[in-house]
Amino acid sequence: MNIINTHSHVYSKEFDTCRDQIIQRAVDIGTTKILLPDIDSSHRKALFETARSYPTICIPMLGIHPTSIDASYKTEIELFTQATTEYQFCAIGEIGIDLYWDSTYKQEQIEVFEYQLHMAQKFQKPVAIHVRNSWTEVLEVLEKFHGISGVFHCFSGTIEQAHTVIDKGFALGIGGVVTYKKSGLDEIIKHIDLEHIVVETDDPWLAPVPHRGKQNEPSYIIHVINTIANIKQLDAEYVAHVTSQNAIELFSLNT
User: Fold this and answer.
1) DSSP E strands, the chain
2) What is the DSSP letter of 62?
3) 3-class SS shares of the chain: helix, strand, coil, % to 5
4) What is the pLDDT of residues 187-222, one digit of tens each?
5) 106-123 and 135-142 helices cross at what angle (nearest 10)?
6) Which of 99, 78, 81 minimizes the C-alpha distance to 89?
7) Residues 138-150: tens digit of each pLDDT
8) Which residue in 133, 126, 61, 143 sits closest to 97, CA to CA?
9) What are residue 76's phi and psi, to 5 degrees?
10) Left, alpha or beta for 8 (phi > 0: left; psi -120 to 50: alpha)?
């Protein structure tokens, strides 16, 4: 089985004492690439150290997560811009708008999101977009940009929103939530062609069933693949193959 995990925070401090074993478990189930989304300048050193330590497996992104936007956001923009000249990266991410916890810095989030989309255009890179309580705002921003592709990470919208995302040239990032009985994602997956889906874990969060409520890890992506296979009545190895090919094309990965 060939699996590409398009969203993992395996560089997080939660894995500092067991990262070798965690990554080996992912390799053992067939994982060939793990994409690492950025959060902000305070996490970037760990991210790129992990990518350097596992160069054939871990592929870094670069970005500013919307929940990292506060009064010092201009400093984050400066550090992000500087980082684009210092590092190799496969995508701009994780970026977007999050109004779930706090909307105090809504306008600043929009400004930073737009800036990073401009940078994606400049570097001709895909983007990994985070949306939480902000579908209207995110889609309004995307209307200003053309020629951008990427993935809506941890997709949990409606079937109508899924089709809107796909029509804009984006893939749906499907993770552990698809294994939750009341998520509603099963009905969406039934009506979406596999060619529009990539798989992810978003570890150490959102562990799939049967590990729900515990710390997530990259190897648990097998439960995501098996669930999609069951929903679509397809072979799991075929699901892994197609979603991996989608990721290879979307992120221009070397295999």
Assistant:
1) 3-5, 31-36, 58-60, 92-98, 127-132, 150-152, 170-174, 197-199
2) B
3) 50, 15, 40
4) 999 999 999 999 999 999 999 999 999 999 999 999
5) 40
6) 81
7) 999 999 998 999 9
8) 133
9) -60, -40
10) beta
93 Cβ contact list (under 8 Å, min separation 6) = 37, 38, 61, 62, 63, 127, 128, 129, 150, 151, 153
Q: CA–CA separation, 45 vs 94, rounded Å?
A: 16
Token pair for 185: 């994602």
Q: At 182, list the tokens.
A: 């009341």
Residue type, 99: L
Q: How far apart are CA 62 and CA 65, in angstroms?
A: 10
- 8 forms beta bridges with none
State the first-to-last Cα distance of the chain, in angstroms, to the nearest integer.
14
Yes or no: say if 231 and 39 are a contact pair by the CB < 8 Å rule: no
CA distance 157 to 29: 29
Alpha carbon separation from 79 to 28, 85, 98, 118 (Å, rounded): 36, 10, 21, 16
Predicted model pTM: 0.97
Residue bearing tokens 């515990």: 214
